[in-house]
Amino acid sequence: QVRLVESGGGLVQAGGSLRLSCVASGSIFRVNSMGWYRQAPGKQRELVAQIGNGGTINYADSVKGRFTISSEDAENTVYLQMNSLKPEDAAVYYCHADVAAQIGSFPYGYWGQGTQVTVSS
User: Fold this and answer.
1) Around 96, how many Cα atoms within 13 Å sit in the side-chain half-sphere?
2) Deepest of 26, 35, 52, 88, by most Cβ within 10 A of its Cβ?
3) Taken in order 115, 34, 63, 17, is the CA torsion positive or negative?
4) How far apart are CA 41 and CA 16, in angstroms?
């Protein structure tokens, strides 16, 4: 079993910054990718940013130039630096990891419990 633990959410004024962290632990042979999704009330969960084990990075258009995803592969940790936050960035942010638990096993997607980001205008 793989566990993802997020931290770093909170309340910030518009224009401020927050840094989210997510650590994956448990039965991990290989992490193929880690990333962040968010879900605002009444909306679907959407991809914010993702980083692959080859360093490939994808961002949602709405956060390009403001958010930066990074990782420490040896620690199975991913970060999301969020700058110039806007009220529309407010949501529950979920960490996601695509993990192969054992040699030869198919990768499986795991989710963290979510961390709330609130942006006041």
Assistant:
1) 21
2) 35
3) positive
4) 21
Assess contact for 36 and 48: CB atoms under 8 A.
yes
**E strand or H helix at 20, and its extent?**
strand 18-26
Return mean pLDDT, the chain.
95
The length of the chain is 121
pLDDT at 104 over 90: no
Cα separation of 23 and 118, whole Å? Answer: 22
Rounded CA separation 37/6 (Å): 12
CA distance 101 to 117: 30
Per-residue pLDDT, averaged over 111-117, amounts to: 97
pLDDT attached to residue 118:
98
Range list of β-strands (E), 8-64: 10-13, 18-26, 30-39, 46-52, 57-59
Separation CA 85–CA 97 (nearest Å): 24
High-pLDDT (> 70) share of the chain, % = 100
